[in-house]
């Protein structure tokens, strides 16, 4: 394609935006509203997914070692647990360390137990895949010198089930919102192009090729997507900046944390821009195609 032809296509796409200002405004408005919903919902779902992942990763198995186990037996038990393929990490804690943590968490009243410590040596086990926690706990429970194996039986399974349902529901909602965005934006662009069908038919009658007719409309759809994504991107950045600035300090040291401002907002912004451009180009392509068959 010649350079002059390319310049002509870009020039015509810009002119079309100005000549059809009301339809351009309608298309850009449709893109803006739908992408704004997508952007806000994406921020919410990505943070909820982080909370879900944090909850899953916080699940661990607490193995109480039998008091009859000597140092050699404990080392053998730790080695057997560490060799399990499902194990990501293990941490050994003595009964004295357990009591110290208890005093730190619940107060000096528990210092009374320092003279006669009723606690046991413990091994904390983290599964490489959180969903493997229950099966891993049952395997460890069969080993010698394990007094008890605790992982929140019953509650953990319900937690994982609830998190999976939440993720699936979120995925369905996002896909539904994206399909709604595609439908609304492409239909608005289609109406814009239908209003200019005479222009397309005339170009075809004077011998213009399909690509010569199509490219300016594709570029126009791309500009509509870019223009329509500007406000949603600005709103997403401003909204999340203020939320992160005010909420993140209050959650410092807490279990639940927000995703960092960067790179989250840049990822969401790039996603919105990409969606806007793709939908704009796709809507223009599908709309122009029916008028090229004359």
Which tags fit this structure?
Alpha-Beta Plaits; 70% helix; alpha+beta; 9 helices; 2 domains; 4-stranded antiparallel β-sheet; 294 residues; 4 strands
Total count of domains: 2
Helix content: 55-70%
The main sheet comes to:
4 strands, antiparallel
Helical stretch tally: 9
How many β-strand runs?
4
What sequence of helices (H) and strands (E) makes up the elements? HHEHEHEHEHHHH
Describe this structure in words.
With 294 residues, this protein is an alpha+beta fold. The chain has two domains: 3-55 and 158-289, no CATH class; 60-150, Alpha-Beta Plaits. It is built from nine helices and four strands; from the N terminus they run ααβαβαβαβαααα. It has helices at 3-19, 21-58, 71-83, 95-106, 133-141, 155-194, 197-205, 210-247, 261-289; strands spanning 61-65, 87-93, 122-127, 146-150. Strands 2-3-1-4 form a four-stranded antiparallel beta sheet. α1 (3-19) packs across α8 (210-247) and α8 (210-247) runs antiparallel to α9. The longest helix is centred in the middle third of the chain and has 40 residues, at 155-194. The chain is elongated, with a radius of gyration of 30 Å. 22% of the residues are buried. The model has no long low-confidence stretch (mean pLDDT 78).
């Amino acid at each position: 394609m010649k350079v002059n032809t390319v310049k002509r296509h870009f020039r015509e796409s810009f002119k079309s935006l100005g000549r059809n200002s009301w339809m351009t405004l309608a298309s850009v408005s449709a893109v803006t509203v739908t992408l704004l919903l997508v952007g806000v919902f994406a921020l919410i779902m990505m943070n909820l997914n982080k909370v879900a992942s944090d909850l899953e990763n916080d699940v661990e198995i607490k193995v109480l070692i039998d008091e009859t186990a000597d140092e050699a037996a404990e080392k053998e038990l730790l080695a057997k647990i560490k060799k399990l393929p499902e194990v990501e990490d293990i941490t050994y804690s003595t009964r004295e360390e357990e009591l110290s943590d208890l005093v730190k968490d619940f107060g000096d009243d528990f210092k009374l137990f320092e003279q006669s410590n009723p606690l046991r040596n413990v091994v904390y086990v983290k599964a490489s895949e959180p969903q493997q926690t229950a099966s891993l706990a049952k395997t460890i429970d069969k080993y010698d010198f394990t007094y008890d194996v605790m992982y929140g039986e019953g509650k953990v399974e319900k937690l994982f089930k609830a998190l999976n349902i939440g993720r699936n529901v979120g995925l369905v909602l996002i896909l539904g919102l994206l399909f709604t965005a595609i439908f609304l934006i492409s239909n608005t662009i289609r109406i814009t192009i239908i209003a200019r069908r005479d222009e397309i038919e005339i170009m075809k009658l004077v011998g213009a090729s399909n690509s010569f007719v199509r490219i300016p409309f594709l570029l126009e759809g791309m500009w509509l997507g870019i223009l329509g994504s500007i406000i949603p991107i600005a709103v997403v950045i401003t909204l999340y900046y203020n939320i992160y600035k005010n909420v993140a300090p209050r959650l410092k040291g807490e279990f639940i944390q927000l995703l960092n401002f960067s790179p989250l907002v840049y990822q969401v912004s790039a996603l919105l821009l990409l969606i806007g451009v793709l939908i704009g180009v796709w809507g223009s392509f599908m709309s122009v195609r029916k008028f090229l068959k004359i």
